[in-house]
Amino acid sequence: MRTTDHALDLVAGKPSLASRAAAVMGVLTSVWRLYRNRSQIARLHELDDRQLLDMGLKRKDLNEALTSPFFDNPASYLTRASRNRASLFYRGVRHD
Questions:
Q1: Cα angle at 80 between 33 and 67, to 5 degrees?
Q2: Which of 10, 21, 47, 96 is the most buried (most CB within 10 A)?
Q3: 6-33: per-residue pLDDT in tens?
Q4: Is residue 69 part of a domain?
Q5: Is residue 96 part of a domain?
């Protein structure tokens, strides 16, 4: 299908089969990525507290990330928690 045909489908408001299939695959990929992130975070529970702190995390951060709503990305929560803890460390604030 040519680009002009795709543009005409968008203007007409009738999505083509290819665009609908791409949208469904995009949703399925997002759900799979969220599931995979949650399973990897669950595996982080196997580490001890010292190893987690080396990554800038605490067990409390893992628990909060796993109990967040399913469609929220828990990896972004852990990234934010780790960066905040590193920022406090470099300012000289203790975070024991």
A1: 55
A2: 47
A3: 555 555 567 788 888 898 999 999 889 8
A4: yes
A5: no
Work out the widest C-alpha separation in the chain, in whole angstroms: 61
Q: Which domain holds residue 71?
A: 3-90
> First-to-last CA distance in the chain?
60
Do 3 and 13 form a contact (C-beta atoms < 8 A)?
A: no
66 by Cβ neighbours in 10 Å (0-12 / 13-18 / 19+) ranks as middle
Q: Which element (helix H / strand E) includes 54?
A: helix 49-54
In eight-state DSSP terms, residue 48 is: -
Task: Give the chain's domain count.
Answer: 1
What DSSP state is assigned to residue 13? T
Q: For residue 64, is it within any domain?
A: yes
